[in-house]
Amino acid sequence: MSWGFLRDLLSGVNKYSTGIGRIWVAVVFVFRLLVYVAAAENIWKYEHDEFECNIKQPGCENVCFDHFFPVSHIRLWALQLIIVSTPSLLVVFHVAYRENRDKHHNQKLYRNPREIDGGLLCTYLISLILKTGFEIVFLVLFYKLYNGFKIPHLVKCDIRPCPSTVDCYISKPTEKMIFLYFLVATSCLCIILNISELSYLIFKYSIKCYLKRYMKKQQ
Amino acid sequence: MDWGTLQKVLGGVNKQSTSIGKIWLTVLFIFRIMILVVAAESVWGDEQQDFVCNTLQPGCKNVCYDHFFPISHIRLWALQLIFVSTPALLVAMHVAYRRHEKKRQFRHGEKIDIEELKKEKFHIRGPLWWTYASSLFFRIIFEAVFMYVFYYMYDGYQMPRLMKCSAWPCPNIVDCFVSRPTEKTTFTIFMLAVSGICIVLNLAELCYLVLKACMKEPRKTT
């Protein structure tokens, strides 16, 4: 049980998506999941071991690390990836429900159970809104927890049992910052893709509705 | 989830590629991704643990390491491989779109080339030619950019054994020793050589496509 599960889930979602939805899946796979697994994970691997404070007092390093990194960047990143991909499950469930109904009633209740219309359109729009919402929530969380997206190379700590204000040094701050910016950039790209897809779908179906009504009036 | 997924996606692109494109994919998988995973990652695995500075001052090692290695070689290569593989995804998406269109036409009863649909291979013509050519162009640009970034960031491609560091809190100019410098230099030069080969392959493929397109044009007009 690992990222392969998320990969399979997203591949499943790909079938029911619009064109922009497929681009979103590709961006999540290649620029977020793959970068996380292939590069980012290793940068934060020894972050606690390499966190060094200018003091010999036992416990001081542990306490300071815990104070400055309540939840590690890399864990937040992983949570973000999982939570942002989950709303797509709503669409998968709805399509499965439709296909199940067709089977159960032994007749074609829907012209095409996978076509995005009616109830499935609502589900799809809700999943897009949720995805965008979660992305924004995580970006704000990152910003608030770490006072911006910068990682300093030195932090000053004076929590017990540290006897005085102690200098503590973070390992690889520049590399971590570069990847953090990369994370922010890809999140923003995904937000833009989601909003475009939302606008596109609303526009497309408004036009459809309007034309239908117009044709009815003509008849 | 790892490079295997990228391999699956790019494997799909393999069917649509020219022969040179297939050679490029092979070089990418065997000489770059596989070498990165199997060998290079172990060489750079202990890089900060074994980066030793001639001082007992806590924090000096961290600061010096960060100063000399703003972004590690291994991460830059991973990013390079990801960026260089991405244009191929454009081609994959275009082909998928074409296949979808052909299936739609078939369903609506229009005449299509069944053989082409069955073989699942589209000839590189028209808009697909432009997508393919653009993907080649971007690949070349990304390779060149990353090679330049390497050169600029590390002042050449050699890994020195000793670096002198005077960043605070180091008390004076401190000697810092890099772990496995010769092995790292060897792999850096290897990856550089393979990048060069990939650029040459991409250029050759681009020239081939352009020549092919130009040769078809006079045949059409005559």
From TrEMBL, chain A:
Keyword Transmembrane helix: yes
Membrane-spanning intervals of the chain: 21-39, 77-97, 118-143, 178-203
Superkingdom of origin organism: Eukaryota
Alphabetical list of SMART domains matching this protein: CNX (SM00037), Connexin_CCC (SM01089)
Residues of the Connexin N-terminal domain: 42-75
UniProt GO cellular component terms: connexin complex
Gene Ontology molecular function terms on file: gap junction channel activity
Pfam family, any one: Connexin
Topology versus the membrane: Multi-pass membrane protein
GO BP terms in the entry: cell-cell signaling
Residue stretches making up the Connexin cysteine-rich domain: 134-201
Subcellular location: Cell junction, Gap junction; Cell membrane
UniProt KW keywords: Cell junction, Cell membrane, Gap junction, Membrane, Transmembrane, Transmembrane helix
Described purpose of this protein according to its UniProt entry: One gap junction consists of a cluster of closely packed pairs of transmembrane channels, the connexons, through which materials of low MW diffuse from one cell to a neighboring cell.
Family named by the database record: Belongs to the connexin family.
Quaternary context: A connexon is composed of a hexamer of connexins.
Protein name: Gap junction protein
Record organism: Smithornis capensis
Gene name per UniProt: Gjb7
From TrEMBL, chain B:
Keyword Ribonucleoprotein: no
Keywords: Cell junction, Cell membrane, Gap junction, Hearing, Membrane, Transmembrane, Transmembrane helix
Sequence intervals crossing the membrane: 21-40, 77-97, 128-154, 187-211
Membrane topology label: Multi-pass membrane protein
GO terms for biological process, alphabetical: cell-cell signaling; gap junction-mediated intercellular transport; sensory perception of sound
Residue ranges of domain Connexin cysteine-rich in the record: 142-209
Pfam families listed in its UniProt record: Connexin
Keyword Transmembrane: yes
GO MF annotation terms: gap junction channel activity
Compartment(s) of residence: Cell junction, Gap junction; Cell membrane
Connexin N-terminal domain residues: 42-75
Entry GO terms, CC: connexin complex
Described function: One gap junction consists of a cluster of closely packed pairs of transmembrane channels, the connexons, through which materials of low MW diffuse from one cell to a neighboring cell.
PANTHER family in alphabetical order: CONNEXIN (PTHR11984), GAP JUNCTION BETA-2 PROTEIN (PTHR11984:SF46)
Assembly: A connexon is composed of a hexamer of connexins.
Similarity comment: family membership: Belongs to the connexin family.
The protein's name in its UniProt record: Gap junction protein
